[in-house]
Amino acid sequence: MTTASVANPFAAGWDLHDVLARMRRESPVVEVTLPTGATAWLVTRYDDAQRALSDPRFSKAVMPAGGVNYRALVPESVERALNRHMLATDPPDHTRLRRLVAGPFAPRRVAAMRPWIEQIAERLLDGVSGAVEVDLLDAYAAPLPIQVICELLGIPVEDQTTFRGWVNAILAGPMNVAEWPPAVMALLDYIRGLLVAKRQDPGDDLLSALITARDEGDRLTDDELTSMVYLLLIAGHETTTNLIANGMLLLLSEPARWERVVAEPELLPGVVEECLRYEGPVQTATFRTTLEPVELGGHLIPAGATVLVSLSSANRDADRFPDPDRLVLDRPATPNLAFGHGIHYCLGAPLARLEGQVAFAALARRFPGMRLAVPLDQLSWRPSVLIRGLAALPVTLNGTRQP
Ligand code: HEM
To answer: Of the residues 54, 283, 331, 396, which has the fewest C-beta atoms closer than 10 A?
Structure first.
């Protein structure tokens, strides 16, 4: 099937899952046109997606040729300072870079963060508890993960107002080519300033540890250090924000669901998994480039092609998940692809899961009577190739504070 006959799933809004279901049926590996005008192969079935994410012939280090390469819109020195991170490298560089930061993100270390993540959640909810209606995305889902990642990295939390706009513009990526270069350049300047300040005044935080790794062991180059901070800042918040916001949309869109979560908070680990599967925050994995011609799902993808794996689609594949379009709060556990697969599987998955569980639990406890403040058709999805996220999530708190 050719590009022309395929609907663009990246601006499909509420129709996303219908568009993807049709692609899985009719054209599971197909060339599509991206908003930049460049083409990419989109993979929509679970088995093909899993293969593409774990096959070393799909490279993260090799830049795609042609117009999809919006990184070429910034000077080469900027490009280098931002894209020498683990998600833009193949082994052995990938292995070395990932190992350097794996410690703080390991499940045991993350589990110990629960009390201070709970404190952040409680503080944010204290801030809105007098209101009747709030935008849950803006007041809670966004600031919670930002505060967590800022604290982990050792970044002043008040800086979030400065960099959140840049991060949003960067993640809009190829949907927003005009705003991308100034946003990445501003974020790089900010990161460089941060590193200068941390060198002068180091703390017990990840940023200081990374600087030491750079300065003492020569295990990180300058570009790798700025790229690492760039990746952690970006990967660590917009994604989890949308886990919380998309999840709350799903839970509130049928009041009986929310009532069940309020009554049975022990369901929450499974609820988070099901929300990740059903409306995961990362719609499409990041670009990969084929190092040689690769046969996938009966199609021959040529060498040097850009490949996008639709995680949103793979997670609704009926060959993997029975009754995939139904949200089942206690669905029997079956691993899904919301955090990717293979060597680039999300480093922050244990942290994101914990943040999701803590975020939902605090809301259920404090605001059991919460409801959506507007009908579903008044909510809109932000167009994006990578991210699945709402523009806003107005809710009425409508609950009395629990003791
Ligand atoms: C619900 C929230 C999150 C989701 C759905 C998510 C999803 C993903 C996905 C799909 C990938 C793989 C992308 C690819 O293969 O192209 C990834 C990689 C990554 N994520 Fe997350 N992520 C989340 C939260 C976080 C958090 C909180 C952090 C912590 C800072 C984080 C850090 C990373 C890093 C460093 C990578 C690159 C790993 C590598 O290349 O080896 N993520 N994430």
So the answer is: 54
Kindly report, residue by residue over 36-47, the tens digit of the pLDDT. Answer: 778 899 999 999
Query: Which residue of 151, 231, 239 sits with most ligand 1 atoms within 8 Å of its CB, as the best mutation to test the pocket?
Result: 239
**CATH fold group of domain 3-396:** Cytochrome p450 (1.10.630)
Which sequence spans correspond to the domains of the chain?
3-396
Q: Who lines ligand 1 at CB under 6 A? A: 53, 86-87, 98, 149, 231-232, 235-236, 239-240, 243, 280-282, 285-286, 311, 338-340, 343-344, 346-348, 351-352
State whether residue 284 is helix, strand or coil: strand
Instruction: Measure the CA angle with vertex 39, ends 38 and 45; round to 5°.
Output: 145
Give 34 or 381, the one with higher predicted confidence: 381
Residues 6+ apart with CB under 8 A from 160: 143, 146, 147, 150
139 or 6, higher pLDDT: 139
